[in-house]
Amino acid sequence: MCHTGGLSRRSFAALVAAGVGTATLAACTPGFPAASPTPAPSVSGPGTPSPLPPAASTTAEPASGSPVSPVSHAPLGVPPSSTLPQQHSLTDPASQWVIVNKHRPLSPLQYVPGDLVQPDVLLAISGEGALLNSTTAAAAEKLFAGAAAAGVTLTLASGYRSFRTQAETYNGYVNASGQDSADTASARPGFSEHQTGWAFDIGDGGGACSFEQCFDEQPAAVWTKANAQTYGFVVRYPSMREDVTGYIYEPWHVRFIGVEAAVDMATRGIGTLEEYFGVGAAPGYL
Fold it and tell me: Which of 2, 72, 86, 286 is the most exposed place for a label (fewest CB within 10 A)?
């Protein structure tokens, strides 16, 4: 997740080509300052967001990403996801259903996926940003191939981000515009989906409107929004749902949750993971 406002195609390409450490994340903001030595925000003590417990369910949530037996009939009040044949953890960062938002930090905060790989797709990034966890990478290859078959070119614009990289990025926002503004534009370290390897940002083959709202009109965004569920992905931060997700519309940010869940979400017309998995809205940090 990143916001760039008016970052030009030329500026984005130059930053990517530079390949300097966190330059790929710096590209997510116009006039982004150099990485600051300011330490990452404290992850303990007063004012630190803490996770909310998972929504009540008729099935016990496993300690890992392993599936558990589903309920036969979903009673009133349970999340839509509970009706699927397989259930996965909402808290284990190695689970394809892990929910990371402003109320639900990663545990541990400095989690690193153990299976990071570089997918065989067109890259607009290098270094750690070109990596995804192995499951997401395999699904991304199918997504990109499906787009290519339809005459649409996708690029991987930003993939995995370490805790340290996210801290540098977030601190850059804070130094530039203050914490209140930073919290509307960038996830705090330990609160970013990118750190799990389950999410990534896409670009258009021509680089048009990278990380800008006009990307919504590009073929890459149009095709992905219509077809992502077929490959197990959702557009994580849909239009006009910042009251639920805490972030403005990001047509470039996709998240893998598995084909079954993604298709079910699309079929039901549910736009956010918070609603589908019944964890509650997270518009701001606690």
Answer: 72
What is the per-residue pLDDT across 146-182, written as a single tens digit (0 to 9) for each?
999 999 999 999 999 999 999 998 899 899 989 887 8
| Threshold 0.90, pTM exceeds | no
